[in-house]
Amino acid sequence: MLFRFVERKFWYFLLSAVLIVPGVFFLAIGGLKLGIEFKGGTLLDLRFANPPAVAELHDVFAGLGHPEAVIQGAEGGRMEVRTLTLDTTEVTKTDQTLKAKYPTFIDDNASSVSPSFSAELVTNAIRSIVAASILIVLLIAFAFREFGFGAFRYGIAAIIALLHDALLVLGLFAILGYFFNVEVDSLFVTAVLTIIGFSVHDTIVVFDRIRENLHLNRGEALNPVINFSIMQTLARSVITSLTVVLTLLALYLFGGYSMRTFALALIVGIISGTYSSIFNASQIVSLWQEIEDRIRHRGGRGQSGARATA
Amino acid sequence: MNRGWAWVVVVIAVLAVWIDIPKHQFSFPFDCPGICYRLGGQSTSIEIKTHLGLDLQGGTQLVLQLHPEKIPGGTTTNIDTLNQQTRIVIDRRINSLGVSEPVIEALGADKILLQLPGVSDLDQARKIATQQAFLEIKVPALDASGQVVSGQYVSLNPPLTGANLKPTFVEFQGSNNAPVVRFEFGSPDDARWVQLSKDFLQKPVQITLDGQQISAPVIQQVFTSGIGVISGNFTAASAKDLSTLLNSGALPVPLEIVQSSRVEPTLGLDSVHRSLVAGAIGLLLVALFMIAYYRLPGVIAVLALFFYTALTYAIFRLIPVTLTLAGIAGFILSIGMAVDANVLTFERVKEELRAGKTLRVALDEGRRRAFPSIFYSNAATILTALILFYFGTGTVKGFALTLMLGVIVSFFTAVFVTQMLLHGAIEYPSLRRRRLWGVEEKPTDGRGDGRTAAGATA
């Protein structure tokens, strides 16, 4: 019993596209909302025994000289207030004002980032994603070095798979940002990088099996070998993702408010990573081979069928 | 694998569990909070405890940007030296406040990370960190005829600053016991101070801190030494603050707060609690799943998993790794990943068993064939973690560190400890039944084994 993983590759590519395109659309129209870490400003996380109305709280902040304050109610009697960057004196003054006005005000977390520092954090986030991608191509090229230059196609297929996962998660958060004002912070960048690592982790396991089977079956065409290899690693891929998703689900459900977006990003990314390693990565290697063969065929060098380049 | 190694693993397990046990809730024999030993007459004790990050125990964090371009008259000192000098000054100020376990780190060349656990007043933190404490004595401006221009003061050349002060202290003076700060100039500024009292006898001089006047006393007599007092409208507390600032020295460079955050301790505690519950539930779910799916190897994997959890946590406590919320998330994630190496091996072992190999051969083959996958996939995760650690700040660093340590330890437990337990298990005939290993009693042919007809030899 063989599932036709390779032959139906265009269907799988189509499914990925259907999932990714809406997210990319919302990314393009600026759906991704940057947290204060990345755009500068102050986030006050106020806790009340009995929270006041949003409009009333807004008046308080306007009175303190911050009419730009954006106020959102959150679970557990909490109110999130976002303003331009407050300095420490202003934060202290705000605390005192709130304490005097609301007896039910318990305490708050305050976090401020100056715009110059946030620009640096954005640069760092981008740099780290680029650096991670480059190192991963090199690692895979090294792991599959026996294929010579062919190794890079595995590296590039793995990169496309990880871009798939990163885009899916970014797109999801662009949609969440557009409709629910969910913001991304450095913890989100961490999640994206972890997803990248995990996606590659999954893809390497499949590729490693392809390599082994190419050795065991010299002369066999590439596509059947890929099919076998995916079959053989299928149980492992699903089980590993399942265990990781189980732990993340626990983190999402019980880990507390601040962990929730982080856990959600990881859950979606890891499921996507498993999908892309089963249904996309090897199929790209196969597609590459088919295109190469077709070009060679036209060139009249007379190679027939997709041959493994082991 | 021989018995010697088995004992090593057992010893590590016992040590790890001992390190993990909280030492404060129970009264232990010998009343020791961690590692204690006695050598000769000297006894040493090192406390072992979990270091909680600011987000979990509450406190204030500031990121300070150095602004050497704002130093009056410029500077030739390089930025690394300035950074180090600044950290020394801030460290002195914090020490005199009695904040426990503060963090003062360079963040690149031009920034400083300052964490003050337990300090919840942002403004107080700002004063500690950014007040320059630049003391200068200025003399009255004189007009062409040598008369004092009221209210105008100028610097001496070179300026008489607090750079050479000896330790100051608070005194109470006069009939109403008003607090004052007594200071003393060291050489050569003491001579200049004496000279100044001769030059400006019966005239006011201005004592300024960071350009602001604190007091402008009139010199009543010629001094005989470098001693003077600063009187102002001090309370006992504000006099002590000034004295502390002067004793810590002035900041060598103006600082700007580019990031500040404050976490209330109660919110932090709530997060710790929730994360621990989440971790425990996650571990339990994974354990149940592994046993249900893999049977005997599953049980062994779970044993290895608990060993892994105990060992990693012990390493966190020993190094020590400061646990942040993100760090706990990294740890929980690494539990999930630790299972992966086992899953990879077990799936291989099943394949070998189905192909008709004996248990012992299947175990060895399974490990050998799973190894490259385990190695390279772990390497990919470690690489990403390294990058996160290198580029990240604060939260992200904590996550990267725990994830990285977790993956390294899991590599050890999966490849070494699980294998040892598996080989140990097949010593017992009753544990050798194939059903316990998740495959049928009779080997099937290679259909599920997946080698194609052309090359089904191994």
The greatest interface between two protein chains, and residues involved on each side, is: A-B, 83 and 78 residues
What is the count of DSSP helices of chain B, taking H or I runs of 4+ residues?
A: 11
Radius of gyration of chain A: 25 Å
Average pLDDT level of chain B = 81
Distance between the termini of chain A: 26 Å
- Contiguous uncertain segments of 5+ residues of chain B: 446-458
Secondary-structure-based class of chain B equals alpha+beta
Mean pLDDT of chain A: 84
Q: Please give the count of helices of chain A.
A: 10
Class from secondary-structure proportions of chain A: alpha+beta
Biggest beta sheet attributes of chain B: 5 strands, antiparallel
Low-confidence stretches of chain A: 302-310
Strand content of chain A: 5-15%
The quaternary state of the protein chains shown equals heterodimer
Overall 3D geometry of chain A? Answer: elongated
Tell me what portion of residues of chain B adopts beta-strand conformation: 15-25%
